[in-house]
Amino acid sequence: MLPRVWSQHEEQEVFIDRAAVFTLESRTSAAELQVGQSFLGFGTARITAGHLRADNRVRIGLPFPRSHVETSFLGGEFRIDTLDSVAFPRHGFFFVGQYIHYDAQLSATEHKDPRSFDSVLPLSFERYSIILTLRRSDTGLDIGERLGGPFNLTGTRLGEIAGARSTFGRVFIVRNISDAFGDIVMPIYLGTSLEVGYARGGNFAGPSDWQRAFSVFLGADSIVGPLYVVAGRTIGGGSAIYLMWGRPR
Questions:
Q1: Whole-angstrom distance, CA of residue 81 vs CA of residue 238
Q2: How many domains is the chain built from?
């Protein structure tokens, strides 16, 4: 049993037809109680109940009215995680499924029952790895899902493709090239990604058709976490170069 109190402040650009039209400021806080069970070497299951408060206002741009929601919620999560590495796995499997019921709608045009799943499956062949990712989310929020940024429709600005619901898939093809760097101790990888996804629904949904992107990257599993230099493009959209620290979503 774990009591938890948290607060989050976020500012995000909201796009219409790929053009940024205003900046939305969101403040969310919650008090919750989690009850769960850990399955050693396999995963976890937990139930969460609590009370949430959310406030949204436009800081820059179109004068939309401020919104405020307070609601109780009850949800559950089931997680399997047997991956041998967070960023560059070669073996194992990852899956997390989540469901939450809110007593009140978080968005006037959406439902009260967000649900999602996220999965990762690596396949290894000597020095090569193929890492498959698939996720699906139905958030109950106008812009609850935002695509864009490195490995998440590379070349698209974060939030340019957004909506209440999304589906996203990605394939990493990675080769360990550490031997080309002599005595360096951290693993170095050269790879490419193929990405496809969409976001739909909500008052500010972007283009709702399937978007396709690709990238090439150099990655390192360093002592401070995974590091990437990424160059990529969304087909029919933009292109970008990134320096990224952290695990790809």
A1: 34
A2: 1
